[in-house]
Fold:
Amino acid sequence: MSRLAASAERVSKRFGATVALDDVDFGVAFGEIHAVVGANGAGKSTLVRILEGVHRPDHGVIRIDGEVRHFASPRDAIASGIVTIPQELRLVPALSVAENIALGDLPVRRFGPLAMIDRARMQEEAREVLAELEFAPDPRAPVASLGVAERQLVAIAKALRRRCRIFMLDEPTAALEQREVARLFSVVARMKRQGTAVLYISHRLDEVVAIADRCTVLRDGRVAAVAARGAFTATDLAAAMVGRAAQQAVSTSLPPGAPLLEAQADGVTPVRVREREVVGLAGLLGSGADRMMRRLFGAAGEPAVVEIGDHKRRFANPVDAIAAGIGLVPGERSLGLVMNQSVRDNILLPNLDTLSRMGYLDRDAGDRIVGELMELVDIRPRQANLKAGALSGGNQQKVILAKWLARRVAVLLLDDPTQGIDVAAKAQIHALIRDVVARGGGALIYSSDLGELARLCDRVLAMRHGRVTATVDRGAALDESKLRSAIGG
Structure:
């Protein structure tokens, strides 16, 4: 192995009573792809945030190319050649694709003492770096007009534009399909050949086995295992992450009941969800599946006509959808949570009307509901007053689910609900979805993981260009290959 590009030596970090990292040793070498895996809350993102200058360690030393560094801010880390693609994308939705890619390093034209942004060059540089990912959006289009997976590609392009010695990726493929993942892997492999150190965090363990030269497993803030390529399998990693063999939830179909929700897509076949039924939406990038989710929740920017039971309703905004008994788990957790508010407040926020008595909030009832739900969905740590932004990604996802469970919505819409979470948390979320359905509710789920849809759903609707083009039922041998064929991938 060549010399270490970045290392952490006996690093510890605590947030209040929560120990995020406990005496951790870690190193990634130049020209190496080093993966870090672990259950949600194991300390992976904390390690990345320390290396990128967001957090300072309580104890221990960070070295960059052998020299001790004390980063006061992310700017210091960037100056040291560290570029990070975080789990929660740092993009400005109102700015264009090209502006987001160049942000922080804008190309300029100088006229003596004056300087102006060179927009033509900025757009051309954006096209060039996006072409490496075989993605060709209009560089002038606002990022707000893109779907979650497309925004992920913009974030990757932004990182690739910078010259970096250490490239850190925190769940970079969570929202990507197989073809986009393959493109990213080819870029990462090229960077490795050029001598870049790559730190790769993912819950997709098959990807880790395929791409990583070494893998470090974190559990409860400590290093549980370190292994070189060829010495670990996805099963080995899953067992090391949770301390036992992990199991996946499989659909146990129930007889469907009366229609709960129906809406017309652009084509002939409607999107319909019935009682005791999990319906999937599958589609390639740009298929319109994510937009369909937003429409059904009144969040697509235009009114939607949705049939609830026997009545047609017009959803002008999410308030209308919530009143009709619909809840949404969005693809971006920041859209489903108020990050600087507590877990308690986030769970109770859509339920204030049910907890109010003559203009007063029944706080005792609210506390009971929050306590019960934190136990039910296993939100860790069990600190209701902790800010949602301090939780791991998987636990944030559980908070979003908990607020809709508290409201007992009839239809749960889920936009890629298990992206970026570990195998144990994924099984828990699958079980919660089946519980909602078992008590007479319905669920509509979009996922970039076709295997997940095949395991979980009773029916899957294949979408292309905003149209439902095929329906695959569980009785027709629902599997990943059949879904891939149906969506044209």
Observations:
- Residues 246-251 have pLDDT under 50 and may be disordered.
